Every structure is written in C-alpha cells, then in structure tokens.
Amino acid sequence: MISRGGTRLASSAVAAAAANARRFSTAGATEKSVLRYYATPAKGGNSAVSPWARGPILTRSATTMSLGEKQVKEEAEENKVPSERSTGAGGNKDGGDEKAVVSYWGINPGKITKEDGTVWTWTCFRPWEAYQPNMSIDLKKHHAPTTFLDKLAFRTVKSLRWPTDIFFQRRYGCRAMMLETVAAVPGMVGGMLLHCKSLRRFEHSGGWIKTLLDEAENERMHLMTFMEVAKPKWYERALVFTVQGAFFNIYFLGYLISPKFAHRVVGYLEEEAIHSYTEFLKELDNGNIENVPAPAIAVDYWRLPPNSTLKDVVQVVRADEAHHRDVNHFASDIHYQGRELRECPAPLGYH
Ligand SMILES: [Fe+2]
Ligand SMILES: [Fe+2]
Hints:
This protein is mainly alpha-helical. It has a domain at 148-161 and 171-343: Up-down Bundle (Ferritin). It contains 10 helices and 3 strands; from the N terminus they run αββααβααααααα. Helix 4 (148-168) packs parallel to helix 8 (259-286), helix 5 (172-201) runs parallel beside helix 7 (234-257) and helix 8 (259-286) runs antiparallel to helix 10. Bound molecules: fe (ii) ion (2 copies). The site of one fe (ii) ion (FE2) has 6 residues, from helix 8 and helix 10. It is found in: Mitochondrion inner membrane. It is an enzyme of class 1 (oxidoreductase).
C-alpha cells in the first residue's frame, strides 16, 4: 500500500514522466484491460477438452498516472475479478477483506475470461499454464540400477519408504499431501543451481532450468490440490517444517556434489510416488476412501470435466509423476554419458 506522503513525494516525478508514459498508452484512461483465451484443438491426451491458447483480443492496462486518487481506487476495484471482491486478493479461498492496492505504477491486473465468458478466478496460475497430461504414459517403466551410484540411489529411496509406510499407514490423502511438500523441492533446487551456473559461465541451459522449475511448480500444484482434500494437522505441519529444512539442504549439497545421483534419486522417488498413487486408487475403488468431487482448482489446472472426482485427480497426478520420473532418469543418463544437461535439449512441456 502506498502512503499519501509517498504518493505526494512521487507525484512530481510522475508528472514529469507522465508525458512519456502517454506515448505508450494508446487508449483512454478509463478502458479496462481484458484478456480472453480461446480453445484450440487438443495436442494429444484427452481430446474431450481443448487446451487454452492466447487469443488475439487483448488490450492494455491503461496508465493510472493521470488519474486522481479516487478515480484510481475506483478503477482498481472495477478490475478486480468477482472472487477477489468477495474473498480477497488471493483469488480463491485464501483472502479476507483485503483491499485493492492503489498504485501509480500502472500495474493493473487484467481480467481474464474463459472461452465461455466466465471470469478466470485463479491468481496462482493462469489458463495458459493449465494442461492435459498424457494419460497413456507407461506407469510401470523402471530404471534397473546397475552402477554403484544407481544402487545407492535405489536403496536410499526404498529405505525412505519404510518410515513413510509406518507413519501414514493407509491414509493416502494425507500421505500424498505430505509427500508433495517434499517432492516440490528437488526441481526448485536443481533449477536454481543450473540458473546460477548459467549466469557464472555465460552459457545457455538447454531449457533445463525451466523444465526443472516447471516440475517444482507442478508438484506444488499437487500440494495445493491435496490440501483441499486433506487438511493438515498441527503436528503434520511441524513435521513438514522439519523435513523441509533437512531435505532442502541435503538435496542442495547432493546436487552440487553429484547431479547424476541427485536426479537418479528423484527418478526413483517418482517411481515410488506412482506406486503410492496406485495404492491410493485401489483404496478409492474399494470404497475405503470416499471418492469426493474433484477440488475446483484441480478441474481448472488439469482441464478436467466439471463432474470429475478425486479418482480422476489422482490419475492425472500419477501421470504427472510418471513424467517427472522420465525427466529425472533422462537427466541422470545425460550425466552418466559424461555430458552436461545443456548439451541435450530439455523436454520442455513434457507432461
Ligand atoms: Fe507430485
Ligand atoms: Fe513428481
């Protein structure tokens, strides 16, 4: 929030810049920015629902520099999507009565609408980040460990399964939610380290930075989905806090020392995740876990039909894990061949 004092102080500089700013503003100050996204033919996977694509309509965010404060506030309020008006700036269920931030910077979140004209309600991801996973992926594929490092990676992951099974038993909803808090770490750590490497060596990454960061984001969306189904208790939150502190640092060091080992570990973790979600599906089929309607965030993120259920969600999440498995085993194989990741184009958009 910008204070009145700050606004006054900046107003002289803003006034001087306003003339230049106008050169970039081709519409009147009261225009609203609207983005529309149109369906296009699906590129694989379930073709019942088409993926989103950027449509040609768009328009701009009018500068607020020349507006009075009251008018700026009114415009900011007008440009909030309905869910934000009612639930706060979080865009869905996270907010309270948070008011719009009045700014003279010209940053004004545009409205995004779906093809049917309804407002896109999520601020944590946008229609062009939603996708349909390839459900025909081989779930049983396994990298047989032959080298010492591979066997070490495999045994490490298998040994982690034992305490996990004891702690969670057959509470797969809770188990999924907790494990996703860990699963979202390796992609971020690997992407961050490759990012720094790219900067200090003045070289391209081959797309691997984005691929790994996309994986981390995808895992985080798994978490955002499962926390709608299984609400974490205080001691589970405390466990996540502790495990994250340890795992982040261990993986960070591990990736620095041996990226091929680190990626292999993640490849095997993903194989375990596929197994866990398969068990989850069995419990749903047996009726031991209620097959509740899919959370709204999952319907929009994976472009699921509106009447989808938890079972549908678990199936698409499992398909995601299979893709992560392939990406990480592939990355490890590249290192095993004595090459760097940037030498082999990353499987961007592989899901
Ligand atoms: Fe996941
Ligand atoms: Fe994963």
